[in-house]
């Protein structure tokens, strides 16, 4: 150490604040050093459960987000007399803006609330926006999940008490074999990186299934270069191998799944494929010891896993597991048979399955710990099968993603690695019943809140949100025959449907934090046309009024009639709530907050504040007192006092009047202060006895009831076989005792895809596109240092990547005469783009890929019009249609998973050919967006610093 | 003391977090500000002390991607110092950190020519040469909590692929990592004897599947039922 | 390497200037072709001083922070660049005093004058050596890391000096056959040495992308340099020349720097056409300018390995 102590900077001029990052949705804890009201340094909060002190590139670049020239400054109104999309705005005051909006919304609410479509992006405040929509009374609300990863949520939650995505995680510290399916970055950005290092240090094996080898796949011990869209088949082939070698966890299946339940075998009848149930509705099983039928959910029975039986009334019934084993032992799933389709050698498929079986069954781990199961029996240890998996959009962004996610879960379930030590574990408030017991609201009425949330989990055709004729009631057609289990809506269909008045015309489209005019829409160019299209009869815009809440000058802002400028994440109060998407860890209940660290220097308001304000003005029952006056002073006040049920609010820490109660307790007026004092997060560590097998763990279940996560402390079974899916299938087959679709195409889709057991089918678009004509799969990846469209405004991050390329297998490209770095045309059934190609090794032979959302419309995001993002970068979105290719005699169908409505971004097939000599630069290009009234001029040089440097002398 | 970094190529996912954290810390650090050129324009670029490059080794399908962070290696034979005509570049005797005295540098670029590792970048606005300071203003700032007296890049790395320490101490984590993991120097043939070392990717031992392969292989009807209490 | 005009000018002109000084001293020492008359000596000295000054001034223009340029002399113990600065500056008093001496005495070959001249010449030659060593010590640039660099600098500096002297002699109507022969010989020698140099750099050697990354047994290719646009490193070091253009430019260089001047000198020997002698000198300077440009662009710094070059 130096003898003389140098004073490098004056810490007395600095203050330190703890908050939560929002450069992406991972929500890491940050420690912000502020100096002279500028940010000196943003680092990770070492105590924070999410990131434990580390921070990603985006998080560290928060300074440049805060300094972005693209920040909005005032509420803006489209200049009267100018066309929408022309980019002419006039600044107005907040009062004017909110008065205008209130008037409009009041009218909608008192006539037909569904004429307001309120859709939000990756907001992390769906508990608030959902409540707002429910109170408004519109069915037309959803967040981004439908175009993002609803397949992961639904695939999991209709099978298991939790799911991939933000609902579960591998038991990172104990797992010995980890398989990652289709993940480039994900929402668990830092946690995955922290975990992968831990895995590798401990000598666990890391296998990555992905057509591209970058990022996480780079450090995988084994890379499986799969052909996109075939993960389900690969997983089911591994299931085949396990079954063939009798390698599955017999005990686990009996204890924790519905494998022993008896399924009625009665083809052509309305009970076919349903469980044979007792009078009271419990499924039957066959008891091996008593040699009799018993209630399958009873404790103490010894149910048979296999076999078919005759019921007293003469029906043939078969255990779920028998049905399952027969299905997957079929040679169609043999590795040799699927090798070509998946692109994975048969030897590899078999070996991977056996490796996992080896780790699961030969490297079992035990944790000595007394715990009580659901029936009150004590156990002295947790037994863990340390194989775990994680999957995301590489699986979900396909139209077979729901079933593929289930296939991957099935693999884990057979190995008995669910919520056990070293396995794939739930994050509180999960586990929840399968599926969670909330049904979507079905009816709306003027000036009346909906009875429940607009979103929920249908379990039978009766739960669909359709009218008597079977037509969708929602603008996005969620919960209709076309997308029955669209549990997160279909944001990607809203503009198209609203434009087509299909199923009806709306009045106002209110968008928060979704760049629907650009990177989050399929078919961007067409969507932009729809946003400005007018009705030939009345000359009005087909979408009459568009309200956009954004913090920055995005492409979407350009198409707004009213722009409500938001604060940045360092300027506002915010909650990351247990009522919402959890930031919990598998072993801890966690939530967190943001609080203002910097004063906004512009006339902006937090959207949270705006929503609470509007709710008061509109007189939502939950937001006004008996006299009809606003009940809450603002968002901060709302968070403190709002209770979902007694003692349960948005924040679970430091509740009770004295602030000494956690999870449940009366409102604490000083709750925000308590959070701020505790570095902006709350964490409750589950005792070891509550950490595993939680869906059958008595103490945990009781704890979860107390904390308000689940309604009752009943054990939750894994549904290997899904009866709800079978009900929809029966409806498709015309056998269901209840609503059935009329359109043959709906019938066919239900009958084909709603298999109660995981299946694999070729993605829908690919079924309609000639593979010879379009020989390549085309997919995207998230770059680790860029968040969708947000980060091109970031002076530091855009130096790392300001242009994307089309990546192609080198050998394949060379065979086709395509040169590295040359310009090529990429053509799909929907259109073509001209882009620059890079030939690489880490790309599956039949795949091309690019980084997502790097391309920008010229003039947006505070960039100069000649920014490479606009002149060289590109969006794959132009090639992707939101509708499936037309088929004779059929209505246009959404390009989505037929079960969940998940946007099928990665089903795309393309052909690639060299551009003619001289054809250079990206195509198509778009008109340059005009700068906003108060937009600053871009500086030529930037020299950000918070104090003068202390030079060290030589 | 011989301070420096160890970079673990087995776990670096190439996220650029270290590069950005470095930029962020050092733009207000001892040699800040680190200028950016055309920050919102056609050819954005700027001064960085740490850059991540990405390589592919081997041919498809036996290829592997390697993410490769590089900053100043604080070489023992720091030729960048020897060649500097003004004495602005110097290597500290007490800890081996190589620095540039901003008040003496004349911006001739010669030191950058002498550096094999691309560690030096000229700041056109100040006209001076800049480089990784090993976050000297973090590691010796006694007002920073002790566990945070680490380079910004090391603190932030989500994959814990960066380690900081004293190579002269054989028991320091960096020395041990180099010893145990076969840590190596880049371009040893140039004989700069860089302090920073790189840990090669680990090779995972094959998992024995033989026993598993022999199991089962009976028809379902021959599976032996097991009574398991629910 | 970035072929900055400033550094090209530095070595080209100051090298030529020092070469001219050296030859002026030698010619006057040994009274070759009868030695130089006062006028010729003064012209030579002025040209030499001008050349050296152009070189040094342009080199300071190359500095990003010229206000610290004065510090460049401080590290002469270790830095060849500092040494070059020290000697280059030391050249001035001797060269100028000699100029003054000749101007006032009209006796270029008188002993005090010759002492000054030889001192200036010696310092100039040492400076050329320092200049060569600035490049030759860099292990990072294989094309420079060779004694051929100072050797070439010498031969070219002297060749420039010799052709300029020839031009001065003919222009002042005072043919000098031995000098002309020397110039021709220096040109030929210089061309041969440059040829050896080109042959030497054409052989692959030194670090490769494999040793640079440590993956010695497999193909290593760059996937992404981690920045979309240029950085200081790509701007300073990222220049390359396609082999085809390199060959063309070298042929051009040989023609301009050596071929045509040699023919011109031969013609001068017969025709005594002063203009041709001047043209020869101009061409040599221009041609060696091209050589110097090539010297930079062809130099491949090892950092380029990290940007994807397979070898340097
Ligand atoms: N840095 C950063 N982080 C982000 C985001 C961001 O923009 N930037 N966005 C956030 C959001 S909204 C989301 S939804 C998540 C998504 O996070 P990810 O799930 O990581 O999403 P993608 O980047 O789409 O990655 C898809 C991966 O799957 C691969 N893939 C494509 N098709 C297939 C296939 O058929 N099978 C398999 N096995 N792999 C396939 C692709 O090569 C890619 O590696 O990331 C979140 N985190
Ligand atoms: N081709 C292709 N397209 C894709 C995908 C893909 O993989 N391939 N991925 C899809 C997926 S998974 C997703 S989630 C979407 C993401 O797409 P979007 O949800 O549209 O994501 P962003 O581009 O981040 O845009 C969000 C908007 O929020 C604004 N914003 C940022 N911070 C704030 C704030 O604090 N307040 C407010 N009010 N606004 C803010 C931004 O300025 C921006 O306009 O893209 C989808 N589009
Ligand atoms: S992953 Fe990065 S951007 Fe996302 S919240 Fe964490 S630090 Fe912020
Ligand atoms: S890496 Fe370069 S700048 Fe750093 S000490 Fe070594 S030679 Fe000098
Ligand atoms: S650029 Fe500065 S530090 Fe580098 S050699 Fe020149 S004077 Fe020295
Ligand atoms: S040690 Fe500090 S200066 Fe050096 S690369 Fe890391 S963060 Fe940058
Ligand atoms: S932060 Fe760590 S993982 Fe990311 S690029 Fe740097 S060294 Fe690699
Ligand atoms: Mo997403």
Automatic annotation (TrEMBL), chain A:
<dbReference type="Pfam" id="PF00384">
    <property type="entry name" value="Molybdopterin"/>
</dbReference>
<keyword id="KW-0411">Iron-sulfur</keyword>
<feature type="domain" description="4Fe-4S Mo/W bis-MGD-type">
    <location>
        <begin position="14"/>
        <end position="70"/>
    </location>
</feature>
<dbReference type="InterPro" id="IPR006963">
    <property type="entry name" value="Mopterin_OxRdtase_4Fe-4S_dom"/>
</dbReference>
<keyword id="KW-0408">Iron</keyword>
<keyword id="KW-0479">Metal-binding</keyword>
<keyword id="KW-0560">Oxidoreductase</keyword>
<dbReference type="GO" id="GO:0016491">
    <property type="term" value="F:oxidoreductase activity"/>
</dbReference>
<dbReference type="GO" id="GO:0046872">
    <property type="term" value="F:metal ion binding"/>
</dbReference>
<dbReference type="InterPro" id="IPR006656">
    <property type="entry name" value="Mopterin_OxRdtase"/>
</dbReference>
<protein>
    <submittedName>
        <fullName>Anaerobic dimethyl sulfoxide reductase chain A</fullName>
        <ecNumber>1.8.5.3</ecNumber>
    </submittedName>
</protein>
<feature type="compositionally biased region" description="Basic and acidic residues">
    <location>
        <begin position="932"/>
        <end position="943"/>
    </location>
</feature>
<comment type="similarity">
    <text>Belongs to the prokaryotic molybdopterin-containing oxidoreductase family.</text>
</comment>
<dbReference type="InterPro" id="IPR006657">
    <property type="entry name" value="MoPterin_dinucl-bd_dom"/>
</dbReference>
<keyword id="KW-0004">4Fe-4S</keyword>
TrEMBL record, chain B:
<protein>
    <submittedName>
        <fullName>Anaerobic dimethyl sulfoxide reductase chain B</fullName>
        <ecNumber>1.8.5.3</ecNumber>
    </submittedName>
</protein>
<keyword id="KW-0479">Metal-binding</keyword>
<dbReference type="Pfam" id="PF12797">
    <property type="entry name" value="Fer4_2"/>
</dbReference>
<keyword id="KW-0560">Oxidoreductase</keyword>
<dbReference type="GO" id="GO:0046872">
    <property type="term" value="F:metal ion binding"/>
</dbReference>
<dbReference type="Pfam" id="PF13247">
    <property type="entry name" value="Fer4_11"/>
</dbReference>
<dbReference type="InterPro" id="IPR050954">
    <property type="entry name" value="ET_IronSulfur_Cluster-Binding"/>
</dbReference>
<keyword id="KW-0004">4Fe-4S</keyword>
<dbReference type="InterPro" id="IPR017900">
    <property type="entry name" value="4Fe4S_Fe_S_CS"/>
</dbReference>
<dbReference type="GO" id="GO:0051539">
    <property type="term" value="F:4 iron, 4 sulfur cluster binding"/>
</dbReference>
<feature type="domain" description="4Fe-4S ferredoxin-type">
    <location>
        <begin position="3"/>
        <end position="33"/>
    </location>
</feature>
<dbReference type="GO" id="GO:0016491">
    <property type="term" value="F:oxidoreductase activity"/>
</dbReference>
<feature type="domain" description="4Fe-4S ferredoxin-type">
    <location>
        <begin position="62"/>
        <end position="94"/>
    </location>
</feature>
<keyword id="KW-0411">Iron-sulfur</keyword>
<feature type="domain" description="4Fe-4S ferredoxin-type">
    <location>
        <begin position="96"/>
        <end position="125"/>
    </location>
</feature>
UniProtKB/TrEMBL annotation, chain C:
<feature type="transmembrane region" description="Helical">
    <location>
        <begin position="116"/>
        <end position="141"/>
    </location>
</feature>
<keyword id="KW-0812">Transmembrane</keyword>
<keyword id="KW-1133">Transmembrane helix</keyword>
<feature type="transmembrane region" description="Helical">
    <location>
        <begin position="275"/>
        <end position="295"/>
    </location>
</feature>
<keyword id="KW-0472">Membrane</keyword>
<feature type="transmembrane region" description="Helical">
    <location>
        <begin position="43"/>
        <end position="64"/>
    </location>
</feature>
<dbReference type="GO" id="GO:0019645">
    <property type="term" value="P:anaerobic electron transport chain"/>
</dbReference>
<dbReference type="Pfam" id="PF04976">
    <property type="entry name" value="DmsC"/>
</dbReference>
<protein>
    <submittedName>
        <fullName>Anaerobic dimethyl sulfoxide reductase chain C</fullName>
        <ecNumber>1.8.5.3</ecNumber>
    </submittedName>
</protein>
<feature type="transmembrane region" description="Helical">
    <location>
        <begin position="251"/>
        <end position="269"/>
    </location>
</feature>
<dbReference type="GO" id="GO:0009390">
    <property type="term" value="C:dimethyl sulfoxide reductase complex"/>
</dbReference>
<feature type="transmembrane region" description="Helical">
    <location>
        <begin position="178"/>
        <end position="200"/>
    </location>
</feature>
<feature type="transmembrane region" description="Helical">
    <location>
        <begin position="153"/>
        <end position="172"/>
    </location>
</feature>
<dbReference type="GO" id="GO:0005886">
    <property type="term" value="C:plasma membrane"/>
</dbReference>
<dbReference type="GO" id="GO:0009389">
    <property type="term" value="F:dimethyl sulfoxide reductase activity"/>
</dbReference>
